[in-house]
């Protein structure tokens, strides 16, 4: 079947919609909020090769992610086949996302895909993306318009089949005296420049070609139109590239702001529980390219029981309630409700919490911690809270998960003046992944992998064997929490780059910085 065969006679399942979503120029931080929402609700995604694989991490676990090629002259799927794939999948129902580099309607052939959908009566929407002409240029320091210099912008596809216009067309282009942006034409830049000069453009006109725009690997070659001769550079290495011609290129150095650093090229895979990611991300923030959490387990709440009831009943005014994780906060609040209580049970208690993330979670329930240790780890909370309490007889309530490597409780030392009430509220269960959840990792090129426990290592090794992820630890610097985790890694033939004796998030962040 081809799109020309389509007739609007099929029954479309209720709720079906195809979203043509622009993924932007490359930097995942330039993805629109609407695009993220579409990805998070999608049942299947068809994506182009030029889409940054990091963007796929916004998808829900377990959905189909289908590559459909389209990388500058090397199309794994002809456009007609892509149209057919979209229609066939949409007829089965669900939320389908067609993820396209840049903007779907700027040399993205989005219109052709919509025509195929419309012919079959399939509902659709279009989510614009930031196109290269106003993003790559900006990251290069080039304003495409500037008062008194350029008041027009012309976007042209410069692929080998389409750049050969009539001489009159080139002349009209030059006479506009504006900015000209050529897409998909790095290998034909010498021909473009020759045609422009023949049409009357001064050879001294500034010009710039930028490859891998908006990414840490961005590289620009700036000169004049007359410089871009066939032997000026190896143009085959400049794809995918954007070629800009016009006086505004002269601002590139003055307006330059994008200066990638070694840290900005770091991509971290954190193989641990879900809560670890937010702390490391909080420390490194926008300084690194990407942090992806691969939780090997997830939390599930325990059933309300007589044992838990007895422990909740022991909470008295003046007690300290120490929270080490956001999960402990959430499950404590839920367990109070299940027991017929509410947050007022903690009204006369003092609250201790580890770090910013747990503090923010407590605030969401209207609780402000009375004590936050300077060290953002479990042992730091234990040591500093004991010092803060002093010798006063005190009850400490410790909500936590089951006693295993992934949900470590706060273990307070047996001191005569301390009475500790341990309340186990949740346990960890193994997370299962399908192939499409993890195989795109191989395209990302992680520079660092962090393992938080031996259990995390075992679960990752299972994924590694099942989905052929052996290249990931070979290409990355592996950081582990403690010698036991390193020893477990070695049983799978993986060598640790760095073993942290005290595995706080700060230590991890510093180890990454020191490795550069």
Characterization of this structure:
- By secondary structure, the chain is an alpha/beta fold.
- It folds into four domains: 17-130, Tetrapyrrole methylase, N-terminal domain (Cobalt-precorrin-4 Transmethylase, domain 1, 3-Layer(aba) Sandwich), CATH 3.40.1010; 134-251, Methyltransferase, Cobalt-precorrin-4 Transmethylase, Domain 2, CATH 3.30.950; 262-298 and 432-515, Rossmann fold (3-Layer(aba) Sandwich), CATH 3.40.50; 302-426, 3-Layer(aba) Sandwich (Rossmann fold), CATH 3.40.50.10090.
- It is 30% helix and 21% strand.
- It has 17 helices and 20 strands.
- A hairpin with a 7-residue loop joins strand 8 (206-211) and strand 9.
- The longest helix has 14 residues, at 454-467.
- The radius of gyration is 28 Å and the shape is elongated.
- It starts with 16 loop residues before the first strand and ends with a helix.
Please state the overall shape, judged from the principal axes of the Cα atoms: elongated
Enumerate how many helices there are, as a single number. Answer: 17
Strand order of the main beta sheet, please?
Answer: 3-2-4-1-5
Radius of gyration: 28 Å
Number of strands: 20
Name of the top-level CATH class of the largest domain: Alpha Beta
In the CATH hierarchy, the third-tier topology of the largest domain is known as Rossmann fold
Q: Mean of the pLDDT scores? A: 89
Low-pLDDT segments, ≥5 res: 1-6
Tell me about the largest β-sheet: 5 strands, parallel
Count structural domains: 4
Q: What percent of the residues sit in helical stretches (DSSP H or I)?
A: 25-40%
Estimate what percentage of residues fall within beta strands. 15-25%
What is the architecture of the largest domain at the second tier of CATH? 3-Layer(aba) Sandwich
């Amino acid at each position: 079947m081809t799109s020309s065969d389509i007739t609007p006679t099929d029954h479309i399942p209720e709720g079906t919609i195809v979203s043509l979503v622009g993924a932007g120029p490359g930097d995942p931080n330039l993805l629109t909020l609407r695009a993220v929402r579409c990805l998070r609700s999608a049942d299947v995604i068809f994506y182009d090769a030029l889409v940054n694989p990091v963007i796929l991490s916004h998808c829900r676990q377990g959905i189909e992610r289908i590559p459909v090629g389209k990388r500058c002259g090397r199309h794994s799927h002809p456009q007609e086949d892509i149209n057919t794939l979209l229609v066939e999948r949409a007829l089965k129902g669900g939320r389908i996302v067609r993820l396209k580099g840049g903007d779907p309607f700027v040399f993205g052939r989005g219109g052709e895909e919509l025509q195929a959908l419309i012919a079959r009566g399939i509902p659709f929407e279009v989510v614009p993306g930031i196109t290269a002409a106003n993003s790559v240029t900006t990251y290069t320091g080039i304003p495409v318009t500037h008062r008194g210099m350029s008041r027009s912008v012309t976007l042209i596809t410069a692929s080998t089949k389409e750049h050969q216009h009539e001489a009159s067309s080139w002349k009209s282009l030059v006479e506009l005296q504006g900015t000209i942006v050529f897409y998909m034409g790095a290998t034909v830049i010498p021909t473009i420049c020759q045609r422009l000069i023949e049409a009357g453009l001064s050879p001294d006109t500034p010009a710039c070609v930028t490859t891998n725009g908006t990414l840490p690997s961005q590289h620009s070659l700036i000169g004049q139109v007359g410089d871009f001769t066939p032997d000026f550079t190896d143009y085959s290495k400049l794809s995918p590239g954007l070629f800009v011609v016009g006086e505004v290129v002269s601002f590139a150095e003055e307006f330059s702001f994008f200066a990638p650093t070694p840290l900005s090229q770091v991509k971290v895979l954190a193989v641990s529980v879900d809560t670890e990611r937010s702390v490391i991300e909080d420390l490194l923030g926008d300084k690194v390219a990407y942090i992806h959490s691969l939780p090997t387990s997830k939390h599930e709440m325990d059933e309300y029981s007589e044992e838990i009831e007895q422990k909740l009943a022991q909470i008295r005014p003046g007690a300290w309630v120490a929270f080490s994780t956001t999960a402990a906060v959430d499950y404590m609040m839920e367990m109070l409700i299940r027991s017929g209580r509410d947050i007022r049970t903690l009204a006369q208690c003092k609250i201790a919490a580890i770090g910013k993330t747990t503090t923010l979670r407590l605030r969401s329930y209207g609780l402000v911690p009375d004590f936050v240790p300077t060290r953002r780890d479990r042992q730091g909370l234990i040591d500093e809270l004991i010092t803060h309490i002093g010798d006063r007889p005190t009850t400490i309530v410790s909500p936590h998960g089951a006693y295993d490597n992934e949900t470590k409780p706060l273990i307070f030392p047996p001191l005569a003046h301390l009475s500790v009430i341990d309340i186990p509220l949740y346990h960890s269960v193994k997370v299962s992944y399908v192939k499409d959840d993890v195989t795109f990792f191989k395209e990302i090129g992680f520079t660092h992998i962090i393992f938080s426990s031996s259990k995390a290592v075992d679960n990752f090794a299972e994924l590694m064997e099942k989905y052929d992820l052996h290249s990931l630890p070979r290409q990355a610097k592996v950081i582990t929490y403690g010698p036991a985790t390193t020893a477990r890694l070695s049983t799978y033939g993986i060598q640790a780059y760095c073993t942290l004796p005290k595995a706080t998030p700060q230590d991890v962040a510093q180890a990454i910085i020191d490795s550069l």
